[in-house]
Amino acid sequence: MSQTASIEWWNKSLDEVGIHSMDKLVSADANWTTVLQSGRDDLARAIEMTGMKCGKDRSALEVGCGLGRMSAALADHFGRVVGVDIAPRLIEEAQRRNERSEISFEVADGVHLCPASITACDTVFSYEVFYYINAEALTTYFRDAFQLLRSGGQFVFQLNMEPVKLKTRLSFVFRKCLYACGIKHWRGWPTGAGYRRYHHSRAWLTRTLTEVGFTVEQITGPTLRQTWIVAAKP
Ligand SMILES: C[S@@+](CC[C@H](N)C(=O)[O-])C[C@H]1O[C@@H](n2cnc3c(N)ncnc32)[C@H](O)[C@@H]1O
Fold it and tell me: Model-level pTM?
């Protein structure tokens, strides 16, 4: 998916679907308080699964923060949180809704992770983002995450590692047809062109993260859909 199509798709997801577009398990009539609580619940499960190091003396970068649902939850556990996202519309909305001075949001260029407001951090975190990114772009993100992390820092992210089945591929085509007929969302997601899920295998993740310099500590989850990867910078 081209970067422009991806940005357009995510910008549209807010305008056409609403604040629950960040997580399709959040109900369609959810208010912001419910969305924030869903972030806290998701992060609690992530901490339990990964044993992610937390502390008010630590700083975290969230990649693909969207509206800041998870950044707000991270701020309960970290002293400083920076959220970056490729969709300017989402960042604008995240900034408007943010009430905490220890959190800030920035638009990312989608090529590099180089936030203007921090030059180093203790944790790079991402949830429900990296399977939208192809292997080449993700490799660059892995290198940048390694550069940003302090020694002993952690790279913690979730991936949907389910194989992309024929049924899923057909649903991409079906969505395109719906959009052409004027139906702008289906099953909670925008139907416009631009969506694509990539499958990154365990072998590819281990090899690429190791080549970048990380020690891979975990690639497991309760389901393939919710696989958690933990990599440490020695
Ligand atoms: C499903 S939403 C998840 C948002 C947030 N992590 C959460 O759980 O609430 C996926 C987010 O990833 C962002 N995204 C997609 N591709 C990206 C990229 N290459 N770099 C940074 N963010 C990206 C989208 O704009 C969107 O906000």
Answer: 0.92
